[in-house]
Amino acid sequence: MKQDREGHDPQIDEILNRALDGRPPTKDESCALINANLNDLQDVVQVASTIRDREKGLRISYSKKVFIPLTNMCRNRCGYCGFRKDPEHPEARIMSPEEILNLARKGDESGCKEALFVLGEAPEYEHPKARNYLQRLGYSTIIEYLRDMCEMVTCQTRLLPHSNPGVLSNEDLAILKDVNASMGLMLESSSKRLCNRGGAHEHSPGKNPEVRLRSIEVAGQLKIPFTTGILIGVGETLEERIDSLFDLKLLHDKYRHIQEIIIQNFKAQPQTPMELAPQPTMIDMVKTVAAARLIFQGKTNIQSPPNLLPGAYRDLLCAGINDWGGVSNLTKDLVNPEAPWPEIDTLRKVTNEAGFELILRLPVYPEYIVRMDGYLPSSLEEKIRSVRRPLQQNLMFHRPSSLSHT
Ligand code: SF4
Question: How far is the CA of 335 from the centre of ligand 1 (A)?
């Protein structure tokens, strides 16, 4: 790369040259990258794209999922959340086992591989309505109920569970590991400021970054293939975004369990405290995705949801993602209900047009299936391998001859 070009910062060139040689940027260098001017940003994106191609190839994965909103009651009240319902709200609920099984069966019949359990955090701690409902079902905590629902779905369908139940104790993580192909917890942000008065997480004890990082660390100790990520545009600075990525990198370097980092943009939801807050722009997303790729290089998968910035498919691909995350043909994104997932054919078309091939994956990434060192729960190991076999065969018999992108 040429140095000292007009309109370009030579320091950025140096950082990018080192990144191309496999030496990821330091935290300070990453802050310089995410603050790069538009001229330099083009180079940042180009290098991120080159590293993605080299480390991950030209296949972009997605998971076909059915979204199971186990409960929309939650002990937290995040300023941007449109999913949570107060217990007195007529739509506040916990799904019954029959509802869960019906939905899971429909997902199975329509070719989904993943049962994505999404739920508010520990609603029984705050809300008698949640406690009473759980008691009627024979449970004292939502985690005990979730555990049994994962087992039921595993036994009665071909789906593989992936649960996102919020922060968890060591014991709860261990219990859920046994019945999940993988699990998830968004860090969202390492910024403690967001928990202060007026911040997005002021009323959300579960969003204390230390508590979340602790859960993600325990997941590493337990060898749980783990999905995490950051939510951008909720009041954090660019430097705090980089702090968040480095906090995750520290844990991943230690435990190697973070199978994917999601870079998710905040979308303002009506009737929430942040309904009028500005949303991140496409440039904001692109520079954050590119920074994440440069920091993590090929060490993990970088994902951006395809429904939250429609029309930006090519930009996100160019910035270095290698995964679109979960897509459903059956259920809405209930966290962002105004943002429909693209049809899978549409996603395939736009991915192909950008020079990539779209491939189906399971909720647990292949690298954790191949590794034989305790990442798969023994109760699911056989099932995971058998669900994966036809996907592998498809890939073997279908080798695209001329993938390339500019
Ligand atoms: S974003 Fe999650 S943790 Fe926050 S209020 Fe909504 S459901 Fe609860």
Answer: 9
Mutate to test the pocket of ligand 1, among 71, 77, 84, 85 (most ligand atoms within 8 A of CB): 84
Q: What is the largest CA-CA distance in the chain?
A: 70
Residue in this structure with the two tokens 């009506």, named with its chain if needed: 270
- Give the domains, in start order, of the chain with CATH numbers: 52-397 (3.20.20.70)
Q: Which residues line ligand 1 (CB under 6 A)?
A: 74, 76-78, 81, 83-84, 120-121, 166, 204, 206
User: What is the residue type of 8?
Assistant: H
Chain segment 96-148, per-residue pLDDT in tens: 999 999 999 999 999 999 999 999 999 999 999 999 999 999 999 999 999 99
The CA 140 to ligand 1 mean position distance, Å, reads 21
Identify each DSSP E strand in 175-241 by its residue range: 182-184, 226-232
Q: Are 331 and 67 in contact (CB under 8 A)?
A: yes
228 alpha carbon to ligand 1 midpoint, in Å? 15
311-353: pLDDT as tens digits? 899 999 999 999 999 998 888 777 888 888 889 999 999 999 9
